[in-house]
Specification:
The complex is a heterodimer of chains A (623) and B (287). Chain A is of the alpha+beta class and 623 residues long. Chain A is built from 13 helices and 18 strands. Chain A has 3 domains: 3-163, PAS domain (Beta-Lactamase, 2-Layer Sandwich), CATH 3.30.450; 242-354, Beta-Lactamase (2-Layer Sandwich), CATH 3.30.450.20; 366-616, Histidine kinase-like ATPase, C-terminal domain (Heat Shock Protein 90, 2-Layer Sandwich), CATH 3.30.565. In chain A, the strands form 4 sheets. Chain A has a 6-stranded antiparallel β-sheet. Chain A has a 5-stranded antiparallel β-sheet with strand order 8-7-11-10-9. A 5-stranded mixed β-sheet of chain A has the order 13-15-16-18-17. In chain A, strand 4 and strand 5 form a beta hairpin. The longest helix of chain A is centred in the middle third of the chain and has 64 residues, at 356-419. Chain A is rod-shaped and about 220 Å long. Chain B folds into 2 domains: 28-112 and 221-271, D-Maltodextrin-Binding Protein, domain 2, CATH 3.40.190.10; 116-216, D-Maltodextrin-Binding Protein, domain 2 (3-Layer(aba) Sandwich). Chain B has 12 helices and 11 strands. Chain B has a 6-stranded mixed β-sheet, with helices on both faces. In chain B, strands 7-6-8-5-9 form a 5-stranded mixed β-sheet, sandwiched between helices. In chain B, helix 2 (42-60) packs across helix 10, helix 2 (42-60) runs antiparallel to helix 11 (250-258) and helix 5 (144-156) crosses helix 12 (273-286). In chain B, 35% of the residues are buried. Chain A binds chain B through residues 60-64, 66-67, 70, 97-101, and chain B through 174, 176-177, 179-181, 183-184, 186, 202-206.
């Protein structure tokens, strides 16, 4: 039942109760009043007729009594009878139509104790009707000589009552009607604003935030409506409509699924339909098991159950099964939906990012990366081999010197054996010389073989100073033959870095080779007073972010500033054809990048070319 | 301004005089009632008559003046000096007045002619009128016609007139009281109108059981209304019309009921012939 009906019937009930009480009390009161009036009337009549007829009764002037009494009865309509009795023996009975004389007194006329005034409604045998019978003892000088009995018709009483009831009924009906009309109007006036508010609330609940409550009345409800309108206006300003939200959800590129606590799907968007190939009708109210692989269920539901305890952190990669049974890699993000922040969750919002393309891309990228890595290795190897080719003459020189020593020693031993001129001490000294030079040769050869070997790309702890020294093992003889001075300013107690020593040596060799070539070029065009100098230094700056700096500086021909930006590009070279591959600095750049380091070129005030390499010290396997 | 005020004040009385002269003045009808009202409160009777005359005049177009006169002599004086136009009196009085003045009967109450009963308590000793000699007799005190009739009856039976025939005569205000005196043994006999006797027997059948009728007279018209012979005929017709119209409306009927008049009939001297004969017979027997 609506508020209008409740209010209406409540007011009607109140009106009925009030009218009922009023009518009931009025009827009771009115009955008493009527009976009192009748009693008083009967008493007045009795007193009057007793006084008028007292002398006549005492003097037996009954004719006078009859005449007066009949006149009185005729004139007063509601007198049914008047009876006079004298000495309990003689009676005059007067009714409207006749009178009668009796010589006895009917005992039924006396009511009450028979001695005092008394009146009540009785059935009268005289007129065969109910009457108000009143007994009035007549006394003269304290002596009671008889009674006057008055019978008043109760027809007027009944008529009065009937009229009263009719009037009451009429008043009640009118009051009820007016009350009903007023109750209707009042209820409508009272509840109409509330119903308007309710309707407005419904419309707002349906998402129509443009609806406003227009209340005409000037009371608290008007104030409430104004507050409601203000609230709606603010709500409109701070929220978006359901349609708007639905539109967003349906037009999302990513799959969105809402499941309830029983893991039944409640909502999906178009992206989900498109991703899985199911229609919304096929998915709604189905278990989430339908689209998540069985073997993953336990894991997924375990994740859901434990996400609130933060034991499981989303997003996580998982799989959906589409309509064709294919597994689709997705990145799942799950959120618990609550009505209010204090409530327990009642649903899960599952957002899935399709990783199929990403996986394919990753795979392709990985393949490309591996290919590139292989290519780079081959390139490095090629560059290395090129360096070896370039170093071949130097290596020959490096090997030639001990060989010359060995040959000279061997010739000396042969000559001395022929002359038997050498002693055992001298023999030991010669053998020691042979040992040292062959050891040096083996060292050069072993290093060359090791350097030329394909790198395994396995990073280990590397002593940068050792790498530099190894590089000079292959190149120092060439620099010496070209009268190029080398200044090694290697820092002591240099911390090891994490890297590939072979590759790093290749970088050092590239830089030293380029410095050698720049100095050689400058020597060819400069005066004889020019002395080529290569300065290589290492240092560790603790104030920096843990980098070892390697500087290779030469005072060679230098680099034109216009080509500085291109020197690390592959296949870019300033050397003559056949003298450079254009890969040296490019490969070096790649190697340093692979070591998370940086390589740059700069120039000193003396136009010296400085290549600076920075390599990070703090590295670990995961990096 | 002052001139206008003087002019208006001088002309206004003249206008009122002219208007009054042109106004039609209603004729005045003077009405006299004789002693049959003596049982009533005279002021009450006067008020009722004034009301009666006023109502008649209003409806018919005349003004009335009513007089209540204590005795027949006063009425005769008024007629003599033409101070009344119409009068009402006992039939006996009318016949006596008519002997002296020029009078014309006009109307009487319809069916008012009623015989007299002479009744007595049923008793072995009272069988006829002569048995009432020396008995107690009750009668209506203003009934001149009844008294005349009873005296004539006694004289015809060679008896003395009632004042000496009965041991005592009880004068009662009403016929009914006279009958009650007989019923309650206050009197031995009484003279009562037939209408009254029948009514009382109807009210109490015991009366009929206890009381016997000794004699019954012929019916007499007790009251008459008459006019002077030289009355303006137009006024006479207006009055007759007015009296008859009184029964055409409720208020008029109520007023007429006060006088116990329910209808009227036109009256001629012939209708009063038995009364005239009774008077003549009495006067003859008395001689």
């Amino acid at each position: 039942m609506g508020i209008f009906k409740q209010t209406f019937f409540m007011i009607i009930a109140i009106i009925i109760i009030i009218i009922g009480l009023f009518v009931g009390l009025t009827i009771i009161r009115q009955d008493n009043v009527i009976m009192k009036v009748v009693h008083n009337q009967a008493r007045s009549i009795a007193i009057s007729v007793a006084r008028i007829n007292q002398d006549a009764m005492l003097s037996d002037n009954f004719g006078f009594i009859v005449e007066n009494t009949m006149t009185l009865i005729q004139r007063i309509p509601n007198i049914s009878y008047i009876i006079y009795t004298k000495n309990n023996s003689f009676s005059l009975i007067h009714t409207k139509k006749r009178w009668e004389r009796l010589l006895t007194e009917d005992p039924s006329w006396k009511i009450g104790d028979g001695n005092n005034e008394c009146g009540q409604i009785i059935y009268s045998d005289l007129i065969k009707k109910n009457v108000f019978h009143y007994v009035f003892p007549v006394k003269l000088n304290g002596l009671q000589w008889g009674y006057v009995y008055i019978g008043l018709s109760i027809d007027p009483i009944q008529q009065d009552k009937k009229e009263m009831y009719v009037i009451m009924l009429l008043i009640t009906t009118v009051c009820m009607f007016m009350g009903a009309v007023l109750a209707f109007l009042f209820s409508r006036r009272l509840t109409k604003p509330i119903l308007i508010l309710e309707e407005v609330t419904r419309q707002i609940a349906r998402g129509d935030l443009t609806t406003r409550a227009n209340i005409i009345t000037n009371n608290e409800i008007k104030s409430l409506a104004n507050s409601f309108n203000t609230m709606t206006e603010r709500l409109k300003n701070i929220t978006v409509s359901k349609a708007y939200v639905d539109n967003i959800i349906q037009n999302m590129n990513d799959s969105l699924i809402v499941v309830n606590r029983n893991y039944l799907i409640e909502t999906i968007n178009k992206a989900t339909e498109k991703l899985l190939g199911y229609s919304s009708e096929e998915l709604l109210n189905q278990s989430i098991h339908m689209i998540i692989p069985d073997k993953k269920n336990d894991s997924f539901f375990y994740d859901l159950k434990n996400m609130s305890t933060r034991q499981v952190i989303f997003p996580k990669e998982s799989y959906y099964i589409n309509k064709k049974g294919q597994m689709i890699p997705v990145l799942l993000s799950v959120a618990e939906m609550r009505e209010t922040p204090e409530d327990n969750y009642h649903a899960y919002l599952i957002l899935a990012l399709n990783l199929s393309e990403k996986k394919e891309t990753e795979l392709a990228l990985k393949t490309a990366y591996l290919k590139l890595q292989k290519t780079q290795s081959q390139l490095v190897q090629s560059g290395k081999l090129a360096s070896i080719g370039e170093l071949a003459a130097g290596v020959a020189h490096e090997l030639n010197q001990p060989l010359m020593v060995i040959r000279s020693t061997a010739q000396y031993i042969q000559l001395a054996r022929k002359k038997n001129k050498f002693t055992m001490d001298e023999m030991d000294e010669l053998i020691d010389t042979l040992e040292k030079n062959t050891s040096r040769m083996m060292k050069i050869i072993n290093h060359l073989r090791m350097f030329s070997r394909q790198s395994e790309k396995e990073f280990t702890q590397v002593n940068v100073n050792k790498v530099i020294e190894d590089a000079f093992l292959l190149l120092s003889e060439q620099l010496r033959l070209r009268n190029i001075s080398v200044n090694q300013e290697l820092a002591n107690h240099l911390p090891e870095i994490f890297g590939d020593p072979n590759q790093l040596e290749q970088v050092i060799l590239n830089l030293l080779s380029n410095a050698r070539d720049a100095i050689t070029t400058k020597m060819e065009s400069c005066k004889k007073t020019y002395a080529g100098i290569i300065t290589i230094s290492t240092q560790y700056d603790r104030s920096d972010t843990g980098y070892i700096t390697i500087s290779v500086k030469d005072n060679g021909s230098g680099i034109d500033e216009s080509i500085v930006e291109k020197i690390f590009d592959p296949f870019y070279t300033t050397k003559d054809v056949g003298k450079g591959t254009g890969l040296g600095l490019s490969i070096s750049y790649g190697i340093i990048e692979a070591h998370k380091g940086k390589i740059r070129v700069s120039f000193s005030d003396k136009k010296e070319t400085i290549f600076t390499i920075k390599l990070p010290v703090e590295r670990n396997n995961n990096e | 301004m002052e001139m206008i005020k003087k002019f208006v004040l001088s002309v206004l009385p003249l206008i009122l005089i002219i208007c009054n002269a042109f106004a039609t003045e209603k004729p005045v009808l003077r009405y006299g009632f004789s002693t049959f009202f003596s049982d009533f409160d005279l002021s009450y009777a006067k008020g009722a008559l004034d009301l009666w005359g006023k109502k008649m005049g209003e409806r018919t177009g005349f003004n009335s003046e009513c007089y209540i006169l204590n005795n027949i002599n006063a009425l005769a004086e008024k007629i003599k000096h033409k101070e009344i136009d119409i009068g009402s009196a006992l039939s006996v009085e009318y016949i006596q007045l008519k002997k002296i003045h020029d009078l014309q009967p006009m109307y009487a109450q319809k069916n008012c002619a009623d015989p007299y009963y002479i009744v007595a308590k049923k008793n072995q000793t009272i069988k006829n009128l002569s048995d009432l000699k020396g008995k107690r007799f009750a009668r209506y005190r203003n009934d001149k016609l009844g008294k005349l009739y009873l005296n004539t009856l006694l004289l015809k039976q060679f008896q003395k007139e009632q004042d000496t025939f009965f041991s005592s005569i009880i004068q009662k205000k009403k016929y009914s009281l006279a009958l009650y005196d007989v019923f309650f043994d206050k009197a031995d006999a009484c003279m009562v109108l037939k209408r009254t006797y029948d009514l009382l027997c109807e009210l109490n059948p015991q009366i009929k059981q206890d009381i016997s009728i000794l004699h019954m007279s012929e019916p007499f018209i007790p009251l008459v209304t008459f006019c002077r012979g030289d009355i303006d005929q137009h006024l006479k017709l207006l009055f007759i019309k007015a009296v008859k119209n009184m029964f055409d409306f409720e208020e008029g009927r109520q007023i007429m009921l006060i006088f116990n008049v329910t209808d009227i009939m036109d009256l001629t001297d012939k209708d009063l012939e038995n009364v005239t004969n009774l008077i003549q017979k009495y006067e003859k027997l008395k001689q």
